[in-house]
Predict the structure.
Amino acid sequence: MAVDKFTALSATGLLCGLPEPLIRNLAEISGVQRVGKGSTLFREGDRAHFVHALAEGGVSLISEARGENGIIDFLGKGDVILVPPVLLDLPYMVTAKAVADLVVVMIPAAEFRALATAQLPLATALNQLLATQWRLLVRHLTGTRSRDADSRVIQFIVDAAGSSKGPAQIALPGSKRDLAAHLGLTPETLSRSFKRLTSLGVKTAGSRIEIENMTRLGNPGGDRTGLFLTTSA
C-alpha cells in the first residue's frame, strides 16, 4: 500500500504545526522505507544521512556500549528519531531497532538542515522539540538513579497513559525485558514490582498493562513524557 508522505509528516509531533507548503516541501524530497520487526533501522556510529519520521511501528534506541540491556528510549508512530545528529552532521550515538514492523518517511539530512536554517517555523519547532527532549532525558536519568523500582514503574505508567484519572490500557512497545532495561531494572525486579502494584489496580496481560483507576497511582513526576507508548483509555 502506498504511503501518503504529506499525511504521515503532518501527523508527527515535530511537523504537525508547520505551514502546509513547508510540510509538502519536506514530503516531496522524502522517501519511504519499510523495516521488519527485529531489524535495525540504523546503527550507532552510522552517519546520519536522513531524518526518520515514524509513520507506523516503533523502535527501541539501544546503547551498544551496554548491549541489548542498554535501552535508552522507545519511540513510536508520530515521532521523529534523533534530530541532533542530523543537525550537527555527526554519527548516531545509539542504534535503532524495530520493535514492530516500521513504515518510515526519510527526509534527506542536507535538505533538512538547509530548511532548518532558512525556515523560521521549522527552526522554532526544533527548538521546542530539543528543549523538551533534554528536560525529559534529565528527568529519566535522575529517576533511574534515585527512585526505587515501584516508583520507576509507576512513573512510566503515568507518562504512557497521559491521564491522571480513570481507567487506562497501555500497549508495551516491546517485551517486558525491554521495558526493564529501559527502567534500569532486571526482568525479575520488574516482575516483582508489577506483582506489588496489583494492590493499586495494575494488571499485566501479555503486552498490555491495564490500570483500574489512574488516580490511585498518583503522579510521581508531575509531567508527562509522551515519548514512550501508544495508549488507549
